[in-house]
Fold this protein.
Amino acid sequence: MLDNTQDGYVTADGRQIGPVVLELKNITLRFGGVEAIKNISFDIRTGEIRAIIGPNGAGKSSMMNVISGFYVPQEGEIIYKGYKRAKMAPYQVARTGIARTFQNIALFEGMSVLDNIMTGRMNLMKSGFLSQAMWWGKASREEDEHREKVEKVIDFLEIQHIRKTPVARLPYGLKKRVELARALAAEPQILLLDEPMAGMNVEEKEDMSRFILDVNDEFGTTIVLIEHDMGVVMDLSDRVVVMDYGKKIGDGTPDEVRNNQDVIDAYLGVSHDE
Amino acid sequence: MLYREAGDFKTSYASDNQTFPIRFDRAAYWVAIAAAFLVVPMVLGDYWANSIVIPFLIYVIAALGLNILIGYTGLLSLGTAAFMAVGAYATFKLTTAFPGMPIYIVFLLSGLVTSAVGVLFGLPSLKIKGFYLAVATLAAQFFLIWLFTRVEWFYNYSPTGQISMPERSMFGVIITGASASSTAVYFTCLIFTVAMAWLARNLTRGTMGRTWMAIRDMDIAAEIIGVNPLIAKLSSFAVSSFFVGVAGALTFGVYLGAAEAGEAFSINKSFLVLFMVIIGGLGSILGSFLGAAFLVVLPVLLKLMLVDGFGWPADLARHLEVMIIGALIIVVLIVEPHGMAALWRTIKEKLRLWPFPH
């Protein structure tokens, strides 16, 4: 059982998990008459790997879009770092330290891998218009400093060989990795990964799992991930939220979730008589 | 063999980030700059200056401006000529109101005025994209030209409806007006073109350029990494219009000397600059130079070849010239849809191996 005090808990493998960083309270999201998310509450703690799972159409991606600001829920509130988050555009959410990747890759196809990852550092670069126009002083100095940081991310994800390749020429698995690199370059506190392993073979999945664990371990980044591969989810995550038809049907450690009767019903398919 | 990249190692990020990372390119660049400033003015005659070199330099500035908007930010505009007209009329109004103001400053201020107008007409881009935006900028084209021909204040109530550039000098050299030498005009255009190209390169290599390209390639992903789409799009309109405005100011101030909005800045000119950008290469500084060269230099060379070379009658040559240019545009776009800049990249790849096939 988890110890749900303010101070966090210690995981099975001995990692110390911190206090709640993001809390979703009674979120309801409607598209016209359709309720995509129905009154869902859960929290995310500093340093943990939190998975959201559920069958297709359960509302997982909608949930992620609510967190990253693409959708504004009709009801409920989001508490981030102890304060209720005001209504925000996605770019403002990004500036508060939440980065994400997409289910179907959203890279800048016309730019090189290096430029794509450099865009991730956009909010950390402060040089003004004139300095950039003259390429003198701050702008050029800053470019080199941030290039160094980006090179570290490139090293970390082992993509040195494609540094200057246009993204459009890369195979699918590498694109996924570049997208992760771009999100990491922003040095986020919370990293949202929407199906990071979709469409990958076993080897690529293993690589990606390793990267996710390393990111969490080395940078202490809180990770929220949506994934369909149950083996991966149960292996990686500290706590799991299970959704079905827009409702939360389970929440807890992988073991608790695995033995939850509602979850078993949702996955094995029991008729919903409500 | 002719074009070498091997052995050119980089030991710092600054040297890897420079504009011409390859030694050969760097040398070629400095040679070109030196030739433009030192050799060309010695050999340039009035005919060549006025028919090719000066229009080429001015169109490069306009193409750079439009390339920032279309090639780098992905916002389609058909109002280029109207924004050039804004630059031209701003120059006229400023220099007649403040005759003592240095003329280079007037040109730059005209660019800034155009910038403001560009931002205003760029506002629809926040809601609409692609062809719809193109139609909205078409409205700018018609509205602005209508404004400049109908409102007399813009041409100082002159009975002809034309604006004409008074004589202005800088550092004791006459730059504008009928008695300006073509060397002075050449240097004015060259200084502006080199400075603006340098500016364009700087703005597109750093955060600003990446912001624009992010919006171009995928606006949703751009937002998720923290790009404010409002600022990204409007800054692109502002910078682009500044370039186009300066090009318009130079067209009127040093090249034409007198202009009437409906004629000098008609929609044909908008399309001409658009073709330069597409043929030269979207999202490429070099492409802006190549595109402008293609559409300015080629017609003149063709005319010289047909009329003076083959002795054809001038009117027949003029018709054929249009057909040949049209055909060449199609050929270039079929051979390399990404424009002449991409063609140049391919040639460089080949040159690297020449004379070996692999």
Notes: The first strand of chain A starts at residue 9 and ends at 10.
